[in-house]
Design a protein that fits this description.
Blueprint (H helix, E strand, L loop, with lengths): L1 E14 L2 E6 L2 E7 L6 H13 L3 E2 L5 E3 L1 H4 L2 E6 L21 H18 L3 E3 L6 E16 L1
Parallel strand pairs: 3-6, 6-7
Antiparallel strand pairs: 1-2, 1-3, 1-8, 4-5
Helix pairs in contact: 1-3
Amino acid sequence: MKALIQRVKSASVEVDAETVGKINQGILLLLGVEKDDTEADANKLLKKILGYRIFADNEGKMNLNLQQINGGLLVVSQFTIVADTKKGLRPSFSSGASPEHGEKLYNYFVKQAEQQHKAVETGIFAADMAVSLVNDGPVTFWLES
């Protein structure tokens, strides 16, 4: 699994002009599932995301994680994150999960996140979404399971 996380002051996702997920301070997570990913990969990545220290403490240092600040987590599926862009001018998605496998692991990831963190919002898997955010910093990290 691959994730692009952004520390945000706020973020939201709309489908057909309707807001389906919205958070204030927290993490916007763009999540991509690869064909060989497992529930163990999802668990490992979620643990890292929830514990990743990217929020400022009282001294302005990145020492606090999402749970310590009681921030929101907005999870948005994005299959293009798993694209191979090394060759040519067109991305290859050969390492990407099938839609069925991707949705299964995305849903598993979200369910686990909801069990471990109180403020979880989502987009809609495979929908055409409009994602808005106010990046805080900007602070953006690329994580893999």
